[in-house]
Amino acid sequence: MRTASLPKLTAISLAGLLLAATAACSGGGDSGGVTGAATKITATDFVCAVSASVVKAGNNTFAISNTGKTTTEVDVYGKQNGVFSKIMGQKKHIGPGTKAALTVNLKAASYEVACKPGEKGNGVRTKITAQ
């Protein structure tokens, strides 16, 4: 039976730790993990898709992509008197086929992201949580 040398085992162990750390830091995506990277919002004429249902408390940047055919607006709402009506952050006039960024400071709580095709009405809403 052969045994691996100590330097070889150390290199393998370090590689494993680096791989695990990289995987842990790359959260976000559809898994709903807390992340420090920009959270993606894809706005269409009928959908408001947010890439993570859980974001970190504090400053959050939302990378908005309007793939619809009309100009849209994106609002992040917090609760006021038990209703998601307090605008925490807003980005208006996002034209079809364009991108925008919105940075919002969120305390640990529940929120709604609203994409408003045509920049009117209550919009299509998606719930998120800041932790």
Q: How would you describe this structure to a colleague?
A:
With 131 residues, the chain is an alpha+beta fold. It has one domain (28-130): Immunoglobulin-like (Sandwich). It is 15% helix and 49% strand. The longest helix has 20 residues, at 6-25. Mean pLDDT is 81; it is low at 6-35.
**Average pLDDT taken over every residue:** 81
Shape: globular
Low-confidence residue ranges: 6-35
Give, in spatial order, the strands making up the sheet with the most strands: 3-9-8-5-6
Strand content: over 45%
How big is the Rg? 20 Å
Broad CATH class: Mainly Beta
Number of domains: 1
Question: What is the CA-CA span between the terminal residues?
Answer: 50 Å
CATH 2nd-level architecture:
Sandwich
Q: Which helices and strands, and how do they pair?
A:
Elements: H1 6-25, E1 39-43, E2 48-50, E3 54-55, E4 58-66, E5 72-80, E6 83-94, E7 99-106, E8 109-117, E9 124-130
Parallel strand pairs: 1-4, 3-9
Antiparallel strand pairs: 1-2, 4-7, 5-6, 5-8, 8-9
Structure characteristics:
single chain, 131 residues, alpha+beta, Immunoglobulin-like, 5-stranded mixed β-sheet, 4-stranded mixed β-sheet, 1 helix
Short description:
This protein is of the alpha+beta class and 131 residues long. It contains 1 helix and 9 strands.
